[in-house]
Amino acid sequence: MLDSLFGFIEASPSPFHAAAAAFERLAAAGFVGTGRGDSWSELDVAQGFVVRDGGSVVAVRAGARVDPERLRFSVIGAHTDSPNLRVRPQPDSGTLGYRQLGVEIYGGVLLNSWLDRDLGLSGRVTVASEAAEALADASAGPAGPLANPTAHFPFWDEPDPGPATVLWRCDRALLRVPQLAIHLDRDANDGLKLDRQQHMTPVWGLGEPNAAGFREFLADELDVERDAVVAWDVMAHDLTPPARLGRDGEMYAAGRIDNLASCHAAIEAMAGLDAVPDDAAAVVVLFDHEEIGSDSATGAGSPILADALERIAAALGASREQYLRAVARSLCVSADGAHAVHPNYPERHEPGHLPALNGGPVIKTNVNVRYATDARTHARFAAACRTAGVPHQIYSHHGNLPCGSTIGPITASRLGMSVVDVGSPMLSMHSARELGGSDDPAMLTTALSAFLVSD
Q1: pTM for the full predicted model
Q2: How many Å from the N-terminal Cα to the C-terminal Cα in the chain?
């Protein structure tokens, strides 16, 4: 399981790539690909289908003989995005003989973790229509390779005529945010303070800045004219590959564990389904933009999940009334990273709630509903863990610290659906490189698999 997770993380330097990798995994498992703008009424929901939109994915598979009067949804939700550095629309800058690339801070980044790392770039690029036609020819179709070994185009985001958006990544060491030497900041070890505007601008060359340098770079990478590059959603990613860690390999380190580990577990649980209970529809939804509040067209604050569930219900022959009743009897597992107890900061954790690496999935609770778990949903996920034969742990946040949140409360409030917040324990959350337990990915996958087929 860990090797599979490593492959998924390596394939997913951006949320767009993560959604594409999830789509490919489900398609390989027999799910039919479709779109949000396509009709779902004729699809075989029992076979399963999957929809991808930017950095979001919705996948469904239903029982073979669903009675609309008894329909319920078993939903697993997660998110594809991670905190990082994102390239500005006009990024070319520099001073004192250095060429630099302007970036914006995306989400709750641990800024110091991005210092002195070799960074690549990835995301999606929109090109003019004539260039899109040339790219299609060069790549021999949506999944074909280009001659440039650093560019990868596994999917077209916009297959229609006109400007097209393609996935792109470059795994060369392109960027670095250099830290100030200790000789020039003798107080750094007593409390480093980084200015997000001034201190986080990476260098990527020497010489005078070129006003069109980044656009020219993308054009060269894509083998198109400079003016054909219209716009981009591009971000930095750490180039260090995932690795086992520790004397006995009992831990692992990687970028974007939050929340690709949950995405991977959800997709593996869905792809591995042999059958779904006759009264149920199993649904996996991977949202984008959780790290910045979820208020986007592909975030948990959007109508994506509500619309998808209603359309699935209609494809199964349910009326609007039956759909609303189905939502009322359904459960969503919001899967996101959980805080493991930190050996160097035990005072930051609530006594009696100290999740351990390799201790099994964590049920996350908060009376102020920063997590959406209540006693009933807690009990239902604990039962799924018992069925799966895996242990579970419980997390409650320290009373003197503000608590983070997830897609769980948003899903609960938008749909009126019961939700339980869970996740695998981890350290270094929101760092450029995070730390987890080697046994936890398999345990979370097994627990989610049991949830999808539970009564």
Answers
A1: 0.94
A2: 26
